[in-house]
Design goal:
This protein is α/β, with parallel strands linked by helices. It has 2 domains: 4-132 and 143-194 and 238-262, NAD(P)-binding Rossmann-like Domain (Rossmann fold), CATH 3.40.50.720; 196-236 and 266-302 and 321-337, Alpha-Beta Complex (UDP-galactose 4-epimerase, domain 1), CATH 3.90.25. It contains 12 helices and 13 strands. The protein has helices at residues 15-27, 59-68, 82-87, 89-114, 134-140, 154-171, 209-219, 238-250, 270-280, 292-299, 308-314, 322-337, and strands at 4-10, 31-36, 50-53, 69-76, 118-125, 142-143, 185-192, 194-196, 223-225, 235-237, 260-262, 286-288, 304-305. The strands form 4 sheets. Strands 3-2-1-4-5-7-11 form a 7-stranded parallel beta sheet, with helices on both faces. The longest helix has 26 residues, at 89-114. It is globular. The relative contact order is 0.13. The model has no long low-confidence stretch (mean pLDDT 97). The structure holds 2-amino-3-ketobutyric acid (AKB).
């Protein structure tokens, strides 16, 4: 049977997945194939040629997809986020690392049979960084891709290792064979900051306090923020995250000087977020009830990242700074929903 050309997206039911499949459907004629542990939200089925409910650890499913489709690109979004991963670290390792290895292996196999490299997008995270604590975090400010790679969470360890696995498959795979130097996987990764969507609420992350605060205010529910008022970390709107993925994947190979990039947009404190939410929802009841364990995780993440390489190499520029994020995207979008 001749294989059908397509693009594979895992984690289609996640926040990034929802945004990405609708954006990809608008810009490509290729068939989109989705894979998620849960049945895809029916509202998104129209974007996909096939939607598979199954586990990325299930070899039978991957073998079936491998035999039916010829993938030009794989967007591997499926993952367990940072807070959830701390409750089941071994499971997180299986999903986040073994799952990624399965997809990279499939990409290599696909590239061999296609005779062309397969593009592979991997969403990494600022959780790959690990600062000793608040004093160091406040002292160093924005950090570059190579600094402080000492993750303190299972999720951060998983993401950092998978960046390395992707780099291995892109640059060093089969280094002892006659095929040494053949690029099979065109691996590209973004280290995302916390993401805020006007449409969906995240689950299982540690940056969730920002979107949770906003969605609770819009719903009229009280909210206790689980980090201190002075807590600062980088954030970005979901449309900017999707734009970043598309832009990086479209960038000509020769303009890319690294396989893993920081991208940034804005980095408000939790107090500033509260103030901005209250400006549009003045009756919102937003307090602070610090969860020390989650606080320590955010204290080990940088207050900002240096996004110079993304800007220089593929012209990264967020559409939404802090004010535009609220005025042009979050507030209008969220008012439509609740
Ligand atoms: C999380 O909080 O786990 C994620 C992340 C920062 O990667 N949003």
């Amino acid at each position: 049977m001749i294989r059908r050309p397509g693009i594979l997206i895992t984690g289609t039911n996640g926040e990034i997945g929802h945004g990405l499949i609708s954006a990809l459907a608008r810009q490509t004629d290729e068939h989109l194939i989705g894979l998620d542990i849960e049945e895809l939200d029916p509202a998104f089925k129209e974007y996909l040629w096939e939607s598979v409910a199954g586990n990325i650890l299930d070899r039978t499913i991957l073998d079936r997809l491998n035999s039916q489709y010829e993938f030009s690109a794989i967007y591997h979004l499926a993952a367990l986020l940072s807070t959830r991963a701390e409750f089941s670290p071994a499971t997180a390792h299986q999903v986040n690392v073994d799952g990624t290895l399965n997809l990279l292996t499939m990409a290599v196999d696909q590239a061999r049979t296609r005779g062309q490299p397969v593009k592979f997008f991997f969403p990494s995270s600022i959780a790959v960084y690990g600062l000793a604590g608040l004093e160091e975090k406040n002292r160093i400010g924005a950090i570059s891709e190579e600094q402080y790679l000492f993750p303190r969470t299972m999720y951060g360890c998983n993401k950092l290792y998978c960046e390395m696995l992707g780099t291995y498959y892109a640059r060093h795979y089969q280094q002892l064979t006659a095929e040494a130097g053949t690029t099979r996987v065109d691996f590209r990764a973004l280290r995302f900051p916390g993401l805020i969507s006007a449409v969906t609420a995240p689950s299982g992350g540690t940056s969730d306090y920002a979107p949770e605060m906003l969605h609770a205010a819009a719903r009229g529910s009280p909210y206790d923020c689980f980090v201190r008022e002075d807590t600062t970390m980088p954030f970005m709107t979901m449309p900017d995250a999707i734009r970043g993925i598309l832009k990086l994947m479209e960038a000509p190979r020769q303009s890319i000087t690294r396989l893993v990039y920081n991208i940034r947009a804005f980095n408000p404190s939790a107090a500033r977020l509260r103030e901005r939410v209250l400006a549009d929802f003045p009756k919102a009841r937003i307090g602070f009830a610090v969860d020390q364990a989650r606080q320590a995780m955010v204290d080990s993440w940088p207050s900002d990242v240096d996004g110079t390489a993304a800007h220089n190499d593929w012209d990264w520029q967020p559409q939404h700074d802090f004010e535009a994020a609220f005025a042009e995207y979050l507030i209008p979008g969220i008012r439509e929903q609740y």
